[in-house]
What does this fold into?
Amino acid sequence: MSSPERKGRLGEIARLFAKLGLIAFGGPAAHIAMMEEEFVSRREWLSREHFLDLVGATNLIPGPNSTEMTMHIGYERGGWPGLFTAGACFILPAALVTGVFAWFYVRFGSLPAVEPYLWGIKPAVIAIILGALWKLGQKAVKGWRLAVLGLAATAAVLLGVGEILTLLVGGLVGMVWLRYTRKEPSDTAARWLPLLFLQAAPTAGAAASISLWKLFFFFLKVGSVLYGSGYVLVAFLEGDLVQDYGWLTQAQLLDAIAIGQFTPGPILSTATFIGYLIRDVPGAIVATLGIFLPSFFFVMLLNPIIPKMRRSTWMSAFLDAINVSAIALMAAVTIELGISTLTSWPAWVIALLAAVAALRFKLNAAWLVLGGAILGRLLYPWVG
It folds into this structure.
């Protein structure tokens, strides 16, 4: 690739992922749905099958899944520079928006009234996820065995089984089931399977004082071992920051989590808010760097392995099973989000309009988010 072409691709990566970072509301499932629409369906940077492989494998490593997906896609488009450009440009808008809210919170002692806009965005996000589920599901469900596996994984999550346990059991059971029902040459998975589990060991020790280094290493530890949703992050932070270290009050932590929920981008930008509360702007910077830095290294290790896994008959079956299990997780999240969100007629109106705009008119996710926010502000007074 020539130098001008490389620069052009990096500029394109920076622009698109910065835009995504500004509109990516709704959590990892919604973020991944937006990425599928933008980079698979619209721009065809990678095939839907490879996109699914990346989603499935990313669910098995620590860190924010959707942020790590931006890094994978950046690498596919622009190599190692693309990986860092995509990840940074997705994270930075969320961190800046969260930092502004943190400044507002410290200066005025409360948060801006954004609830009507957020309320309207949530039904629109359901439509975005449904569109991605339809397209990805058609690719992931390659036969009745995978359909059964996907339904079982969805039911398991809805019944309270942990996400990581569901993925691992689904992947291993599916690998054996698919492998022994396919007429293909034997292969060994032993040399690849250990490479899937890259969890780092947590550090220990309480902080005697709140220095920038201690703040950085605390969030570096969290970013290195955190699996699961944003609610797992709450447990990590409550146990350490409130109970053990006493760096925050319970009320401050709840406000920080609320900010992470209704700002765009990864919920781990909550670290930016907390860092600002503890040590102002330098604290916000080191906390943000600490919690996201491990993801860059995990993706650097994982991405080159995935094509080799796909060439192995055993690991190809494992990826197929993991992929359909990952789609099942998205389906379970969508069901849970629908139950909690579609509780009034205005919410149904927004969801149905967004679904028609997404599925019939192929409207970009950015317009769906904007439209949901506007309708949310207009219809909020009628929410019962």
Residues 185-208 have pLDDT under 50 and may be disordered.
